[in-house]
Amino acid sequence: MADGFKTRKKALSRHGHWIERWKEGWAIYKKNLLGRIGLALLSIFTLMALASFIPPLIDPMYGPMSGVDPAITASTGPSARHWLGTDFMGRDLFSQLLAGARVAFTVGITSAFVSIVLGTLIGMVAGYLGGWTDVFLMRAADLIMVMPTLLVVLILAALFGQLNIWSIILIIALFRWPGVSRVIRAQTLTLKERPFIDAARVAGASHVRIIFRHIMPNVLPLSFLYMTFRVTAAINIEAALAFLGFGDPGTVSWGMMLQWVWKTGHMFKAPYWLLPPGICISLITLAFYLLGRAMDEVLDPRLRKEGERY
Amino acid sequence: MDSKTSPEILRLSEVTKTFRQSRSFFSGTKKIVTALNRVSFHIHKGEIFGLIGESGSGKSTAGRLIVHLDRPDSGKIYLNQKEITRLPGRAFRPLRSRVQMIFQDPYQSLNPQLSVFEAVEEPLVVHGKGKRARREDRVVEILDAVRLRPPERFFYRFPHQLSGGQRQRVAIARAMVLNPELVVADEPTSMLDASISIQIFDILLRLREDLDVTFLFISHSLAAAHYLCDRIGVIFRGHLVETGEGKAVITRPGHPYTQALMDALPRFACGEKGRRYNALLNTRRKPPAPSGCPFYPRCAKGKASLCSAHAPPFKEIEAGHQVACFLAG
Amino acid sequence: MGLLAVEGLSIGYHTEKGLLHAVEDVSFTVKRGRSLGLVGESGCGKTTLGLAILRLLPENGTILKGRILFDGADLLEKSDEAMRRIRWKEISMIFQAAMNALNPVHRVKDQIAEAILTHEPETPRETVRSRVEALFDQVGIPRSRMGDFPHQYSGGMKQRAVIAMALALRPRLIIADEPTTALDVIVQDQILRQTRRIQEAFDISMIVISHDIAVVAEVCHDIGVLYAGQLVEYGDRESVLQSPMHPYSRMLLGAFLTVGGKPPRVPDNGNDSPDLMDPAPGCRFHDRCPMAEDPCRQTPVASVTVGRTHRVLCRRVA
Fold it and tell me: Which range in A165-169, A282-286, C177-181 is most confidently predicted, on average pLDDT?
């Protein structure tokens, strides 16, 4: 009984450290106007993504991909029935826009997360071990970094035919870790010189333990910062791919919507169709960027001085 | 503590360590800096040996070599009569629990992301000592020994929530938690205030009594060494120039450099009437031949014919008190 | 009447968590040609005091009350412009880690000449040169090294150059914050003695801020001991060093290691400096004090005069 109480109290104070840090971080973040705008925009997009499940429940014709309004055979402007109008097949643009938000989040966050995990691991290992490991990993990073991601995906798409959304996510992730790994490596190099790493060695800690227990917690905030920038990049790449016709034909992304506008020759005829996805792509990119900038300020001044931005 | 009868725990024999230093950013030429030049000394079990020198004298390098953070270029290091100089990292790891180190700057030597409990527990985890509950007891015990009381109150504090003195206590607890035989304390109080330093010294003295641990105490202060150490070694630019019983070295310094260090002590620390040796030259001489005495350029007593050409050998000026100077004794 | 008189000065820092009471009701004077040493552990407010006198507190620092009289005029009421003229010309400073204050891409002599010309643009070139040469002589840097760049200097020489710079405009008061902390013992000793010589020769007043009571004992006529923002003891060097009255000064001096005298004894009850966010109204040392009683914590303490020039902030002394 007493023991249980003791343990619980400990757990509380253990997390108390993180809660306190979040509170402190939030206090700084709150002061940043752009950060607040970014967060507001993101909440709107999150709501959109969550709401994307609702329209098809109301009426199958609101299904973003396959729902067709039987009364409509061509693209129409906004109406009470279709708030943003319909596309050339009579599909509801508003539900497509909502579904697009969901795809943007999936693509952005998943591929950013994977590339951050890769980049952080590789950066830490290269920086900590140094020597040939470092040379090899960093040259590999350079090699991948100079390859234009978009072009590579295009070539792959041309080779393998249509890519599904998860392959796209994976490819983006695999091509976007080098930037992160360089930053994390730089941070690791400075951390490695700090006496607490020597202290850990004297305590007998193995390399694996030093990397994960001593270096990782110190670079993770930086990784998360870079993740916000990576999200932006991933969303943009997916949009570009979809627009060029190499997107996953089974999903409705904003880039896909733009491609349909263009392909069906509605580019200059249907602003109600062209503008919403265009604006959404710009705004979600902006939102993640603003979030990143504001987080940068939260982490400042400890981390900003190291490394390059991208 | 009768150090003469107790066995030897550590011996350095003719240890040399050099570092490559790029001379300038552009020229790319490398300059070789000798941090330690054929340094030999030994420490008896249970004693506190003070290695005294200025920054850059190589005293910290000696400490790092002993705990295997660096390897010497030549020479041998023995722990309990067993040579450990070239043991590979893996083979040395079991010995780590016997040789620990307290670092200079407690603001830097604790991982900011680890709580006090995690930091002090880590060596136990790494060496697979005991179950969680047992480890917890041990952490409580050792925190109590360094007077962080009550220990539980400090468990989940983080370094940034502690004062400098408290941090250094945590660092000491971390070094002591495995019950090591030998602890290298590298200027453990240079970042702390006088009243806190004394508390730290007293903790070290008490730990020595209670846990029978041997200390290598590295410092720039003869006064601190006088307070803490049984024996003292004075090191100048990588050369050990004097060793002996603490009291003997302080009251009868044989080497001109040790004398200069005594002169530099605040007069207030010598009770105003301390003797001045005036061992330091006002201007500097040309550096001697590589084989000459390293202190010759600054030595007020040096003789050109002798000191600039030959390396002075160690001379015993009284029992157990050795000085590397031609003119001593 | 001293050259500088600080009267009832309290300074706070605005932080995320509220107001930090860094300095509380501190008063002292620095007479012409005398030097005052302020000692205390890190965070005791000694650097804050130095910055406040120069009106160089960081943005979140505010002077809560008190006056800083320099030559009878309150520095806190001067305009920024007037203050800028006073800095360097009347009051100059030697900062902690001062060696970084030298610009690495200019020759040392040029930097000192620059300092003179900025404040006295009409000085003829010849005069500037001879003044710079004289400064090098005073601080003990050989003239042959005048044209060197800072990186060619050793730590001690850089520190001497910084002192020369502080002297360049012949100020009446120099504030030196930890002037020798980063230096080796032998060099430190030399520089302290040189500093003392200069200070006496030019009749300059000085405030030396240090954590090391030995440094202060070496150079200063008067000593002020700070603890957690309070000036707990203040008096001439002999009185403070020989008969310290405040328990903290006693602890500090008791902790001072000597090679001759008696072994130090410092009680260790594990307590540390108080939280300056919400200090108790009474004595801030009560947590660590071996003679503290209940009222020490709650009742504000008034300073007690124990000698002609010796004041102590402790109710147990009264």
Answer: A282-286
Which value, to the nearest 10 degrees, does the dihedral of the CA atoms of residues B146, B150, B153, B156 take? 30
Could you give the 3-state DSSP secondary structure of residue B245? strand
- Contact (CB, 8 A) for C225 and C40: yes
Please give the full DSSP string across A13-82, using - where no structure is assigned.
HHHHHHHHHHHHHHHHHHT-HHHHHHHHHHHHHHHHHHHTTHHHHH-GGG-TTT---TT--S-B---SSS
Q: In 3-state terms, what secondary structure has residue B31?
A: strand
Least confident of B245-249, C226-230, C258-262: C258-262
Tell me which DSSP letter residue C91 carries: E
CA of residue B62 relative to chain centroid, distance: 7
- Residue C130 class from Cβ within 10 Å (0-12 exposed, 13-18 middle, 19+ buried)? exposed
- Judged by DSSP in three states, B231 sits in strand
Residues of A in contact with B160 (CB under 8 A): none
Domain count, chain B: 2
Q: Given pLDDT bands bounded at 50, 70 and 90, which one contains residue C270? A: low
Choosing among B148, B195, B226, which should be mutated to test the C contact, i.e. which has the most C CBs within 10 A? Answer: B195
Can the peptide bond before residue A148 be classed as cis, meaning omega within 30 degrees of 0? no
Average pLDDT, chain A: 84
pLDDT of residue C311: 93
| CATH number of domain containing A226 | 1.10.3720.10
Looking at the DSSP bridge assignments, the partners of residue B43 are B10
Q: What CA–CA distance (Å, rounded) separates A201 from A205?
A: 5
Domain final residue pick, B210, B241, B272: B241
C-alpha to C-alpha distance for B64 and B17, rounded to whole angstroms: 11
Domains of chain C: 4-312 (3.40.50.300)
Q: What is the pLDDT of residue A75?
A: 81
Q: Please check whether residue A284 lies inside any domain of the structure.
A: yes
Smallest CA–CA separation between B46 and chain C, in Å?
21
- Is B292 in the same domain as B161? no
Asked which of B207, B241, B275 is the last residue of a domain, the reply is: B241
Say whether C267 sits in a helix, a strand or coil.
Answer: coil
**C191, C259, C276: which to substitute to probe chain B, counting the most B Cβ within 10 Å?**
C259
What 8-state DSSP symbol labels residue C2?
A: -
Is B247 among the domain residues? Answer: no
pLDDT given for residue A305 in this prediction:
33
Contacts of B147 in chain C (CB under 8 A): 268, 270
Cβ neighbours of A204 in B, within 8 Å: 93, 96-97, 123, 126-127
Chain B residues with CB inside 8 Å of A194's CB?
108
Are the C-beta atoms of residues C247 and C291 closer than 8 Å to each other?
A: yes
Alpha helices in chain A (DSSP H): 2-30, 33-51, 54-58, 93-129, 131-146, 149-160, 165-175, 177-192, 195-203, 207-209, 216-243, 254-263, 271-299
Q: Give φ, ψ of B315 to 5 degrees.
A: -125, 135
Does residue A74 fall inside a structural domain?
no
Domain membership of residue B3 (yes or no) is: no
Higher pLDDT, C5 or A22: C5
Rounded Cα distance, B327 and C196, in Å = 34
Q: Quote the CA–CA distance of A184 and A178 in Å, as a whole number.
A: 10
CB-CB under 8 Å, B221 with C185 = yes
Q: Is residue A194 in a domain?
A: yes
Do residues B107 and B17 share a domain? yes
Joined together, the tokens standing for residue A184 give 């994390």
Residue B277's φ and ψ, nearest 5 degrees, are: -95, -20
pLDDT digits (tens, 9 = 90+) for A63-81: 887 778 888 878 888 888 8
Mean pLDDT, rounded, for B300-312: 85
Question: Can you read off the two tokens belonging to residue C5?
Answer: 């008189």
**Sign of the four-CA dihedral B273, B278, B282, B287:** negative
